[in-house]
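A reminder from the course coordinator: this example appears on the midterm review sheet, so study it carefully.

Given structure:
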């Protein structure tokens, strides 16, 4: 065992401390239902201490005076430390979240390290413009850091979501109060140790684990946080926006739920598309906001496609997340496990036909079998609501106009998949689907350079790439009279 598990504390001003209340909460391993560790339970007074430290670091600390290139150097050093400790981090993430070790080592860790390296390189390439204006003036813009930012992250990709948030915030010179999800705070706390080792000055990153309605709400409501970035459910996203509006009108960016169409045209490479459908819904146990949970299959290939999908789903190895052969692990929490089983029951009650799966996969731990529903209609709850589990709803279509309308008939718009060999049709779909990411003949591709975010109630603002700089900077216009 490489991961060292120990009781977690809060990180404030580069010091590890208990919560002011002295409270601690338990963190469990969803594969065994055993308690892994206890963690200090942050609440409003702790968030307040963290914000005070972050404010001081932003206004006075060495962070502000440091050159952008030196900030980049710290980020590079940090990325190097992540790389050095990648096996341990992967194991810790697997233990706390339940996802298979082959995914943490092949996806979560490489993508996390990539994000920090990308933003390390971007730190000294953030600049304003010189603008041609009327009259005898010189006008230029300064692109300045947004200030103290609050970042509230979910439990499905604990490390990666921390990376997508911390990378651009640190590259732009912001200071941070990070609130990890209560289910999965362990890797964020380990990141805190490595940030200290990388030489991050005091107060630049503060980490306050705790629950949503207490610690999370204290971040969203705080009067001295300039911007809040949130990834999680659409319902909580709405609350965050409301709290931001009712407090100090802090800027908000939201990456929320999804109900992505994954569209299979009859002219596609069927085997590749079956792979893509598997990836689309079973990656990370389906606990993915961009999961391809609505599988639209052109009628003439539906039978062939579903028969192949059923076989593959039944072959998928579900089990011990630490076993390198395991392909699907445990759902992240008891709550999520019951919620998914509830949707499966609803699907059956509403008349959908269970093709495979549909039940728990083990006596102990929150394992669910890969589940495929056929005979789903657009009105059913399993076709409309985000399940966030390994449950896919198969729908069929006859022509492209009907398909486009139905694919877009959702409150969400995070992503979509399109499978076809017809290049014109593929690009037409890319244009017509209202979603932030379109994957053509692939699914779940990510890169630190490529933006990610939603249309409609999947949120707003784009993370990753240069686009994320918009979230963490503000623009100042400077006029100089030349007379
Ligand atoms: P899910 O519903 O998928 O568990 P949530 O949106 O509830 O996801 O959680 C994502 C993050 O939002 C977590 O860090 C959680 O603690 C936080 N959170 C939940 N409820 C609130 C709230 N009322 N205010 C602020 N943050 C919250």
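Designed residues:
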């Amino acid at each position: 065992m490489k991961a060292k598990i120990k009781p977690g504390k809060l990180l404030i001003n580069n010091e590890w401390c208990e919560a002011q209340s002295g409270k601690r909460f338990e963190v469990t391993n969803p594969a065994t239902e055993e308690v892994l560790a206890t963690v200090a339970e942050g609440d409003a007074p702790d968030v307040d201490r963290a914000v005070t430290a972050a404010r001081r670091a932003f206004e006075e600390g060495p962070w502000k005076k440091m050159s952008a290139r030196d900030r980049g150097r710290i980020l590079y050093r940090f990325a190097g430390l992540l790389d050095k400790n990648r096996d341990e981090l992967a194991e810790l993430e697997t233990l706390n979240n339940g996802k298979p070790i082959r995914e943490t080592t092949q996806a979560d860790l490489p993508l996390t390290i990539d994000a920090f390296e990308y933003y390390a390189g971007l730190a000294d390439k953030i600049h304003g413009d010189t603008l041609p204006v009327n009259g005898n003036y010189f006008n230029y813009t300064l692109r300045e850091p947004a200030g103290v930012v609050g970042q509230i992250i979910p439990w499905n990709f604990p490390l990666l979501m921390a990376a997508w948030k911390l990378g651009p915030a640190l590259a732009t010179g912001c200071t941070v109060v990070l609130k990890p999800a209560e289910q999965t705070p362990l890797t964020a706390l380990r990141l805190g140790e490595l940030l200290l080792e990388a030489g991050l000055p005091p107060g630049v990153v503060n980490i306050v684990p705790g629950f949503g309605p207490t610690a999370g709400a204290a971040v969203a409501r705080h009067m001295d946080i300039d911007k809040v970035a949130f990834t999680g459910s659409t319902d909580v996203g709405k609350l965050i926006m409301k709290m931001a509006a009712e407090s100090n009108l802090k800027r908000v960016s939201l990456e929320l739920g999804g109900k992505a169409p994954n569209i299979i045209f009859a002219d596609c490479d069927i085997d590749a598309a079956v792979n893509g459908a598997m990836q689309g819904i079973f990656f990370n146990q389906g606990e993915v906001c961009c999961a391809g949970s609505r599988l639209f299959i052109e009628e003439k290939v539906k039978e062939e496609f579903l028969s192949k999908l059923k076989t593959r789903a039944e072959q998928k190895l579900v089990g011990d997340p630490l076993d390198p052969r395991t392909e699907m692990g445990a759902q992240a929490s008891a709550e999520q496990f019951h919620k998914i089983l509830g949707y499966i029951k609803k699907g059956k009650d509403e008349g959908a036909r269970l093709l495979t799966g549909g039940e728990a996969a083990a006596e102990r731990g929150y394992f669910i079998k890969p589940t495929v529903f056929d005979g789903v209609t657009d009105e059913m709850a399993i076709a409309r609501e985000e399940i966030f589990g390994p449950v896919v709803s198969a729908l069929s279509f006859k022509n492209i106009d009907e398909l486009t309308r139905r694919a877009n008939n959702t409150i969400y718009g995070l992503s979509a998949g399109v499978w076809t060999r017809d290049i014109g049709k593929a690009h037409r779909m890319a244009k017509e689907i209202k979603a932030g990411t379109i994957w053509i003949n692939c699914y779940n591709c990510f890169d630190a350079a490529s933006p990610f975010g939603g249309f409609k109630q999947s949120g707003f603002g784009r993370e990753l790439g240069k686009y994320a700089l918009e979230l963490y900077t503000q623009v100042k216009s400077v006029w100089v009279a030349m007379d």
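The mean pLDDT is 98. The chain has two domains: 10-256+457-479, 261-447.
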